[in-house]
Write a structure and sequence with these properties.
Distance between the termini: 36 Å
CATH topology: Ferritin
Number of helices: 11
Number of domains: 1
CATH architecture: Up-down Bundle
Shape: globular
Strand content: under 5%
Oligomer: single chain
CATH superfamily: Ferritin, core subunit, four-helix bundle
Structural class: mainly alpha
Number of strands: 2
């Protein structure tokens, strides 16, 4: 199973200048980091974080299936949301190609996770739940485009943090860890695209990544999605003190993980 080739297939390089601008890599944020010596010191921190993550004693099949079914539920949510958005006609004509691509990626994620769970791990992929994207009438994403974009950002930012939150639970399975990190990188590109699209339309002043846990112009109910993103402590080290960089730049350099309970609490708002 060549996961890198699969990722290249489901998330090809963008071609248009518009997409390249919207899908711009988070590496741009590292321009804020000082001289070469500071970059070297900072680059060493993620390795320390990785080695300090708690590992499960044994990556048994049942646990892996549980993690992947959790991820599959999120992918079902995202795919269905974009498919319904495209079907509804709420998306501006100029932006449809963007959300068609994101929809296709999410469908590929669904099929891929179903394949790993069913044919690799011999488990049973979770069925797609029924969703209520109005959250019991509180939102109108399929008749109001700004609302559609706001929920899209919320879902993508949740997905990025959710995948990171499960990394420690699948670290002893190279196949599953690679799959999770591959999908995580695609979700991060989606999040960056939607955030920049909302800013370009004057709906927010968001960067392409989360900054200091700010929800920007999103509804207050989304605060749980961004809680903890202001963190500057990694592997017991205060990165601000280590590098002399400002707290905003440090907070932007990492996505903080969300655990399963936090994510399910967010997703439950949209379950029918």
């Amino acid at each position: 199973m060549n996961l890198i080739k699969l990722l290249d297939t489901i998330c090809p390089d963008t071609k248009s200048s518009e997409e390249k601008d919207l899908f711009f890599s988070r590496r741009e944020s590292f321009r804020k980091f000082g001289d070469f010596g500071k970059k070297v010191a900072l680059a060493a921190v993620p390795l320390a974080i990785l080695s300090s993550l708690p590992r499960i004693a044994k990556a048994d099949t049942a646990s892996l299936i549980g993690v992947l079914n959790y991820a599959l539920t999120l992918e079902h949510l995202e795919y269905r949301y974009y498919q319904m958005g495209l079907d509804s006609g709420v998306i501006n004509a100029a932006d449809r190609v963007i959300f068609q691509k994101i929809r296709d990626h999410e469908l590929a994620h669904v099929k891929f996770l179903q394949e790993v769970i069913g044919n690799v791990l011999k488990g049973t992929p979770v069925a797609e739940p029924k969703f209520d994207f109005t959250a019991k009438g509180n939102f109108k994403p399929f008749s109001d485009y700004p609302t559609f974009l706001a929920l899209s950002q919320a879902f993508e930012d949740t997905g990025v943090r959710a995948y990171k939150g499960q990394a420690a639970n699948v670290m002893e399975s190279d196949v599953v860890l690679t799959a999770a990190l591959s999908i995580h990188s695609v979700e991060a590109r989606h999040a960056s695209m939607v955030r920049r699209l909302r800013t370009k339309k004057g709906l927010d002043t968001a960067k392409g990544w989360i900054s200091n846990g700010s929800i920007g112009s999103l509804p207050a109910a989304t605060q749980a999605i961004y809680a903890g993103e202001e963190n500057v402590m990694h592997a017991g080290v205060n990165v601000v003190s280590l590098t002399g960089l400002d707290a905003t730049a440090v907070s932007e350099a990492w996505d903080e993980p969300l655990n399963k309970e936090q994510v399910l609490g967010i997703a439950s708002l949209f379950l029918a």
